[in-house]
Specification:
Length: 454
């Protein structure tokens, strides 16, 4: 494959397609972001690491990218949990939004050009809903809520490839909840008329007093910030139905033109072979990793070892293994010295061919290891090549954090230094063993002893 050509798997067509953006100058890219009602779990972060890797691949390939990610700060769950904590919706959601921003920084995720908070786009949502009513695709119910009439939209469900005909036949009735499964294919809520469960959360608009449904939020925010037609839209596979099918119905129903060219979705992170989910209570947060003394970038590294379209089963041992491997490449990098030479074009070609082939990060990582192992390349050129690859991998080679070495180990190192000066090699060896037994490895280099976790 030509290393400059990109191809991505498009959920809409169920095949890999060569990538060609609508507008040659800039890729228009929207990612479904977090619902800020709690700390995201690390399964959620797979969606954002995947979107970030995709963006990095596009940038690496020379594209300009306009990337927008939403923050869902109004939906069923944010209202429910803000009330539980007796907090205003704003105060409640702002807290988790800030925590999200901190997390993505520690995962080395490049900030999107724009984060859009749903509550800042209510007028735009009302506007889209009014267009849908005008186009005969939405109707008001008795209580003043507005629903999308799925039978009026040809090809409703085309993204999830539902055996929609049967389901549509049975799909009389309405669904008010934001989240539902394929067994609940119904007319869905675009605007939810206020009821007392919503408390003080409502907007007075031309549609009446109420609040938006979750699905209309992304349609309106994507169109308001990127235009009616975009290149790429991402999310996890559980977003395909109903969220993304509903987005297609809303956006295309309002504008009459195709909404998204490439739909891309990451697979799940599992625990004990079941989807990691808040509701299943089988989740871990980034804080759990940090408490276990694991670098968040080890999680990123672990995910890169699998293709984004395969399911991965989370176990602590695997993550610890990824951390050891990451520390090993960091150490190899640190040993390359300070000079930065030239990027090795042959390895770059191989690396690029893999990442451009639907983000084949596992094979791209093999190329990274090969660069480190190759004895025919100078250290300076290795360094330049690794830094270049890291534009895509985002493992932070340009900013490796000093490992926190426990005081006890530091003392043993000093003692060993002295033994070596005294040429007491037996003692030096014994001290090395002791250091090893405490989980650290010591290497004697020209610059002195180098210490790292085993
Ligand atoms: P939510 O905040 O629930 O809307 O989810 C945020 C993102 O995480 C969405 O793109 C989901 O599809 C994705 N997601 C949720 N659970 C998982 C999981 N276990 N593995 C991978 N992605 C997930
Ligand atoms: Zn969305």
């Amino acid at each position: 494959m030509n290393s400059d050509k990109m191809q991505f798997y498009n959920t809409l067509t169920r095949q890999k397609e060569s990538f060609s953006p609508l507008n040659k100058k800039e890729v228009l890219f929207y990612s479904c972001g977090p619902t800020v009602y709690n700390y995201p779990h690390i399964g959620n972060y797979r969606a954002y690491i995947f979107a970030d890797t995709l963006k990095r691949v596009l940038l690496y390939g020379g594209y300009k990218v306009k990337h927008v990610m939403n923050i869902t700060d109004i939906d069923d769950k944010t209202i429910r949990d803000a009330q539980k904590e007796s907090k205003s919706l704003k105060e409640f959601t702002e807290f988790y939004t800030e925590e999200f921003y901190k997390d993505i920084e520690s995962l080395n995720i490049i900030k999107p050009k724009k984060f859009t908070k749903a509550t800042d786009y209510i007028d735009e949502m009302v506007d889209v809903i009014q267009k849908l009513i005008k186009n005969g695709l939405a109707y008001k119910s008795e209580d003043g809520s507005v629903y999308f009439n799925i039978k009026k939209f040809p090809n409703y469900g085309k993204l999830s490839h539902l055996v929609i005909e049967n389901q549509k036949e049975n799909a009389s009735g309405r669904i008010t909840k934001d989240e539902y499964g394929k067994d609940d294919v119904h007319d869905f809520a675009l605007w939810k008329a206020w009821d007392e469960k919503d408390g003080d959360v409502f907007w007075e608009t031309e549609l009446g007093k109420g609040r938006p449904g979750w699905h209309i939020e992304c349609s309106a925010m994507s169109m308001a910030t990127l235009g009616e037609q975009i290149d790429i839209h991402t999310g996890g596979v559980d977003n395909i139905f109903p969220h993304h099918d509903n987005e297609i119905a809303q956006s295309e129903g309002a504008t009459g033109v195709p909404f998204v060219k490439y739909w891309m979705h990451n697979e799940w992170v599992l625990v004990d072979q079941k989807k990691m989910a808040k509701s299943a209570k089988n989740f871990y947060t980034l804080r759990d990793l940090i408490d276990a003394d694991i670098d968040p970038l080890a999680y990123r590294f672990w995910l890169l070892m699998a293709n984004y379209r395969t399911r991965v089963n989370f176990v602590w041992e695997a993550l610890e293994g990824a951390e050891t491997a990451l520390k090993r490449v960091y150490n190899l990098y640190n040993e390359l010295g300070t000079n930065v030479g030239k990027v090795n074009e042959e390895y770059k070609k191989k690396f690029k061919a893999f990442i451009n082939d639907d983000l084949d990060t596992p094979r791209a990582l093999v190329v990274l290891w090969d660069v480190f192992k190759d004895e025919n390349i100078s250290n300076a050129d290795k360094k330049a090549t690794v830094l270049d690859f890291d534009k895509v991998l985002g493992l932070g080679f340009d900013n490796i954090k000093e490992e926190k070495i426990p005081e006890k180990i530091k003392l043993l190192i000093l003692e060993r230094e002295k033994a070596r000066v005294d040429k007491d090699f037996q003692k030096s060896d014994e001290l090395r063993k002791e250091i090893n037994s405490l989980g650290y490895e010591v290497k004697d280099t020209a610059g002195g002893q180098k210490i790292s976790k085993i």
